[in-house]
Amino acid sequence: MTDVIKVAVLGASGRMGSEAVKAVESAEDMELVAALGSGDSLDRTDGAGADVVVDLTVPAASEENVRYAVEHGMHAVVGTTGWDEAKLDRLRGLLEEHPGTGVLIAPNFAIGAVLTGKFAATASKYFESVEVVELHHPNKLDAPSGTAAHTAREIAEARRSVGRGPSPDATESDPQGARGAVVDDVHVHAVRLRGLVAHEEILLGDEGQQLSIRHDSFDRVSFMPGVLLGIRTVGQRPGLTHGLDGYLDLD
Amino acid sequence: MTDVIKVAVLGASGRMGSEAVKAVESAEDMELVAALGSGDSLDRTDGAGADVVVDLTVPAASEENVRYAVEHGMHAVVGTTGWDEAKLDRLRGLLEEHPGTGVLIAPNFAIGAVLTGKFAATASKYFESVEVVELHHPNKLDAPSGTAAHTAREIAEARRSVGRGPSPDATESDPQGARGAVVDDVHVHAVRLRGLVAHEEILLGDEGQQLSIRHDSFDRVSFMPGVLLGIRTVGQRPGLTHGLDGYLDLD
Amino acid sequence: MTDVIKVAVLGASGRMGSEAVKAVESAEDMELVAALGSGDSLDRTDGAGADVVVDLTVPAASEENVRYAVEHGMHAVVGTTGWDEAKLDRLRGLLEEHPGTGVLIAPNFAIGAVLTGKFAATASKYFESVEVVELHHPNKLDAPSGTAAHTAREIAEARRSVGRGPSPDATESDPQGARGAVVDDVHVHAVRLRGLVAHEEILLGDEGQQLSIRHDSFDRVSFMPGVLLGIRTVGQRPGLTHGLDGYLDLD
Amino acid sequence: MTDVIKVAVLGASGRMGSEAVKAVESAEDMELVAALGSGDSLDRTDGAGADVVVDLTVPAASEENVRYAVEHGMHAVVGTTGWDEAKLDRLRGLLEEHPGTGVLIAPNFAIGAVLTGKFAATASKYFESVEVVELHHPNKLDAPSGTAAHTAREIAEARRSVGRGPSPDATESDPQGARGAVVDDVHVHAVRLRGLVAHEEILLGDEGQQLSIRHDSFDRVSFMPGVLLGIRTVGQRPGLTHGLDGYLDLD
């Protein structure tokens, strides 16, 4: 890899992809060598000398795109969803045959959101109570958000690791369900408000103190520092990394 | 009424009552002339020359206490619950016979909580979306809190008065109830955390903006400024006033 | 005025003006009959039959624009700055000669921001302590923001009206100025953060309780409901109204 | 050390000390064997068979207390202030002669506050902007708080470690100092409000996103989980540990 990282973006005309194109073009240590749409041939990536392929396409295409990248000596940074255990296992097998190649698959490129989940899980080991509130625009179809449910599971796992049970709750009467969803023993509340985008707050409480960690995402552009971090790091991390937190220095 | 207001506190050994005793004793413009427990005779109030009787007893005793006060020419400030429409009607009738006497019955003496409800209702006429979050200690038995449900109803009434319907909500999938309770078309969420006391936040959203109003009650002492305001004002407000907001200058 | 309000926008190519053009076009009860840029002749407004002129131009032009509107029988809604007392006095004089005509001059059309200021002033009469925090993007040149300074002055005036002095403060050592600016005896703090737009929070405290009122403005579009409210109301409010709060129902 | 940890509390009649006595008495895995006031002889600690000495006294006494503990084979958990580098160096020398003995000196036992500082420093490496707001009761004499200044320095050090400079700030006009104190290139704001105790919020911003971390301390009891963690851990950590974060599992 030369000093300047040569980058090919797949899914370049999508919402995330078009932001990634702009971000790569603005980064002084990167060069955009290819921007592919859905009909374009994958050989335009290695053909242009790409070091790193950024896959922001659709679940049906992502596995083949990554396979192509790995087999042609390119690292891959992947933001496409749909990577189940079977796909991940096949990818791990492929990477064993290409030991110098790195792949990052990140369900969430917002560094702030990833840090929020990590901090919440760490803190929840030391606090008696913890709940999650997510807030989104009112056009969202599902509740709670995938990010909030993921955070709840990270918290539950961290608490189990130190022998902590569920948060205390003496509620006897809640006829209308004000206490919200319970995901892996953690209460999760979903607020919908016009004007909001995507927000998550974790509330932790103990005798005499409270700790609150909140992430506000106002714009898709908030994912780009994470994408650029992935592009810069993936070449030094052979094998599969699942989750952007693997690239963050949390000490 | 002389310059210094002579005050009798009923229920003086209870949690609210003992705080009220301290607050009256500390107020320079008041004199505590009687502090009655549950077995004490009511004639110790007018016997001591009280101008105002503060009733912080129990639902079973409150109506008789207030009747005694009115019939003996004393104003009354009442924080006891259980005043239903039948009791209120009887009291209104009694006050017509005593046109110079004032009674304040206030379900909530925390000025901040009362202002929060009023502000939220006013603002909700101008915002597309509104939801209520209440947060309490984990020993609370019911959800949502009475205050939050009351706020939701105030909001709903204010919105109906200007022809606003429910807040927009596209949720199609919410299998675990993360969207919380719906009180009079307003979503209400209840959080329980060790270390908290009683807190309420109203979130309002519209295109490009959000308005948040939050009240935190850390201690029972937060009710005392409202009690003192009631004692100072009740003598100038003949008849029945229901709710502390009737004594607040909201302009 | 017919059922549909005919609107002319002055300064239609500016940032606020272009948003206003879109908002008027989207309102079912309005018709955009003229959109003027800086070189356009004012007779295109009454020439097109406008009921209401919206002035979103520059201080040097605004007074003449409003004079033209009033003299030609059109109401005016004005968001341009620079209206000092001399200009306002001349306008009041002119409106006396045109008793059926209304003018609204509003320094801030964000209903949420206006409500925030009003609520803060009202509440500050009942709380011992109050401070203001404003938060903006880091490209802002001045601190504190004009809105925050205005809020501080509204609060100070409200407190004086009930005989309340400054908030208590025992600070003896503050070598680096952490306590922020003091505007009319009210502490004002200015935060600058990448990713923010324009935000204001008023914090009120008393024994055992806190009240927080926060307004977040994420986008210029947040001013449009206020502009539309002005257009709809100005025809029923002859004379000069200064400040959007004059059109809000705060009860 | 047996299954139950035998604990001696020094400074047992002070504010922190009396809370520690209660906390140790309530802990099932501990036994309070001695509670010493200022006049009591130190030999009542090893005389009672203490495993761990908790020093919550005054700067003038703390060094001698800890020396006594180490020389008599007891571990020490120290919350007293005033440990400068000279004292720490002498203690390190002493501990080399007692290689099995552990001492924890913690300026802050509130686990939430310690986590807040750590999280803020970590996150500040990934965000363009960061500022600190601390909020306290109005009787506090100095601003900013020591905790906030410490957090600012931790943040500045973390940012320097990754080559990040100060947060962006275009402010040209700030005649009254609304931008607050600047501690090691980090802006720190101090709010004073009746009803508050001790609170700290770190605000981080980047394009399109914000991360907020807030710690609220309502009561001295919030320090006790940290004291108990120290008592439980100090026996397994020979040598000197400075700062409770050395005992926290931050992964």
UniProtKB/TrEMBL annotation, chains A, B, C, D:
Signal peptide: none
Residue ranges of domain Dihydrodipicolinate reductase C-terminal in the record: 112-241
PROSITE patterns referenced in this protein's UniProt entry, alphabetically: DAPB
GO BP annotations listed: diaminopimelate biosynthetic process; lysine biosynthetic process via diaminopimelate
Segments of this protein annotated with the region Disordered: 158-181
Coiled coil residues, start to end: none
InterPro entries: DapB_C (IPR022663), DapB_N (IPR000846), DapB_N_CS (IPR022664), DHDPR_bac (IPR023940), NAD(P)-bd_dom_sf (IPR036291)
Reaction(s) this enzyme catalyzes, per UniProt: (S)-2,3,4,5-tetrahydrodipicolinate + NADP(+) + H2O = (2S,4S)-4-hydroxy-2,3,4,5-tetrahydrodipicolinate + NADPH + H(+); (S)-2,3,4,5-tetrahydrodipicolinate + NAD(+) + H2O = (2S,4S)-4-hydroxy-2,3,4,5-tetrahydrodipicolinate + NADH + H(+)
CC annotations in GO: cytosol
GO MF annotation list: 4-hydroxy-tetrahydrodipicolinate reductase; NAD binding; NADP binding; oxidoreductase activity, acting on CH or CH2 groups, NAD or NADP as acceptor
Alphabetized Pfam families for the sequence: DapB_C, DapB_N
EC number(s) stated in the UniProt entry for this protein: 1.17.1.8
Annotated binding of NAD(+), by residue: 11-16, 79-81, 106-109
Domain of life from the UniProt record: Bacteria
CDD domains: DHDPR_N
Top EC class for this record: oxidoreductase
Binding site for (S)-2,3,4,5-tetrahydrodipicolinate: 137, 146-147
Subunit structure as annotated in this protein's UniProt entry: Homotetramer.
Name the UniProt record assigns to this protein: 4-hydroxy-tetrahydrodipicolinate reductase
Gene: dapB
